[in-house]
């Protein structure tokens, strides 16, 4: 691990982004407490501006740029929540933002990024082609901001943990959706710094759990990317991972996997029992609780990380339809 990211970085990030983000509430869940015997609360971060916590890291990174970097602008390749957060953060800061994507990206995702005010550059037919364009823009002086493996991104994501501790000072267990690990690295670092007794549990989907496989292998490994209801949890951890692999190893007590059926049940539960619209990736903590996969949750906060689900798909799921996204790839 290069130089450590600390609680001090977390507080500095919070001060930096305070005017750019929303403090999201924590609510207790009677239904989940009854179902599990624990005292279950939900950190409703899906209500963050742009619909996910990714705005925290993106804002912190954009607001940490030097004047020279600000003048050039930022570039990213994410078509999902990081892209949205980055586009919005850059626009708020008056910084140019280009998101590069392949022509295979569906129009609704392109529109989602454009709606946040970014320039979209469509290049080639693969993520690799898009990366070539990014490399050219970086050679030209623009700053590439990756979705998770970056100090300022991790420090920004960690600010959600400061709120969780203030809203639930007695918490014993935190459930954190896990993909590349920017979120859990930040949350885990803060939790362990404040109270090492807090249990930090990362939750991924069975289909394409890159960090889970990497931790098991003892080093970052490639996993096949599969379609899943938890689409924001797809993608690898990066074979040259700088921060999040080591931080996950250091700060996370347990990694748990959930199935597509469990994710669908959690989206359904969130809607009918909690009156919340959440995306698959945001629901994995609830999925693990409902499936009985969290032993003795105690005073437990499930971090609900995002809401950006296709509403037609959401409608089908909450209507009880047996949605099988795995058939599509
Ligand atoms: C990005 C994302 C995650 C996972 O975050 P990582 O930092 O990549 O582990 C979880 N939920 C949602 C909604 C996301 O957008």
UniProtKB/TrEMBL annotation:
<dbReference type="InterPro" id="IPR036052">
    <property type="entry name" value="TrpB-like_PALP_sf"/>
</dbReference>
<dbReference type="InterPro" id="IPR001926">
    <property type="entry name" value="TrpB-like_PALP"/>
</dbReference>
<dbReference type="GO" id="GO:0030170">
    <property type="term" value="F:pyridoxal phosphate binding"/>
</dbReference>
<dbReference type="GO" id="GO:0003941">
    <property type="term" value="F:L-serine ammonia-lyase activity"/>
</dbReference>
<dbReference type="GO" id="GO:0004794">
    <property type="term" value="F:threonine deaminase activity"/>
</dbReference>
<dbReference type="GO" id="GO:0009097">
    <property type="term" value="P:isoleucine biosynthetic process"/>
</dbReference>
<feature type="domain" description="Tryptophan synthase beta chain-like PALP">
    <location>
        <begin position="18"/>
        <end position="306"/>
    </location>
</feature>
<dbReference type="GO" id="GO:0006567">
    <property type="term" value="P:L-threonine catabolic process"/>
</dbReference>
<dbReference type="InterPro" id="IPR050147">
    <property type="entry name" value="Ser/Thr_Dehydratase"/>
</dbReference>
<dbReference type="GO" id="GO:0006565">
    <property type="term" value="P:L-serine catabolic process"/>
</dbReference>
<keyword id="KW-0663">Pyridoxal phosphate</keyword>
<keyword id="KW-0456">Lyase</keyword>
<dbReference type="InterPro" id="IPR014333">
    <property type="entry name" value="Ectoine_EutB"/>
</dbReference>
<dbReference type="InterPro" id="IPR000634">
    <property type="entry name" value="Ser/Thr_deHydtase_PyrdxlP-BS"/>
</dbReference>
<protein>
    <submittedName>
        <fullName>Threonine dehydratase</fullName>
    </submittedName>
</protein>
<dbReference type="Pfam" id="PF00291">
    <property type="entry name" value="PALP"/>
</dbReference>
<comment type="similarity">
    <text>Belongs to the serine/threonine dehydratase family.</text>
</comment>
